[in-house]
C-alpha cells in the first residue's frame, strides 16, 4: 500500500515550546493516520514569519512559501485550531487567507493544485463553538480545492468558562478519540481514491 503524506497546520496563538492543546489534538490525528499508512509532520504557524496577504509569497521574509510547499506535497491537510470567542483563531483565518491564492494556481488542465487533496479539521476549546469553527474552516478549505471526507473533523470542548485544557483533561477514547479514528480512516481512504483517480478537468 502506498504511504500517504499528511501535514498538520497548528494554529495556536502560542509559540513553541509552550504547550498547545490544539497541536496535541493535531498530533493525535497524525498518530491515528499512521494506522492507515500515512506519515506526516506538524507545523506551528506562529513559529514562522507568515505575512498577512492573499498571494503565494508576500515577500519581506515571508515563510509561507515553504509551508505552502509542504501543503502541496501532502495528500492530507489537517488544520488544528483553538476556539476564541466562538471563532477559529486569528492564525487559522490567516492560513485561510493565504490559501485563497490557490484559486489562481492551476495545473496544465486548469485544475487547482489542491484538487485531489483531502482536508480535515481538529478543534479544541473551553466553550461552545466547535461546530461553527469546523463549518467555517471546512467550507473555506473546500472553496480553495480541498475535498472533505465523511466525518472529516474531531473536536473537544470543555466546560464553558472553564480552565481545564484538552492536554489536561485525560484520555477521551469514546468521544474525541472515536471521532479522531473515524477522521483518520475516512481521510486516508478518500486520499487514496483521489490519488488513484484525480478529478477530471472542467
From TrEMBL:
Q: A Gene Ontology MF term for this entry?
A: oxidoreductase activity
TM regions (residue ranges): none
Q: InterPro entries this protein is in?
A: Flavoprotein-like_sf (IPR029039), FMN_Rdtase-like_dom (IPR005025)
NADPH-dependent FMN reductase-like domain location: 7-151
**Protein name per UniProt:** Multimeric flavodoxin WrbA
**Which source organism does the UniProt entry give?**
Kribbella italica
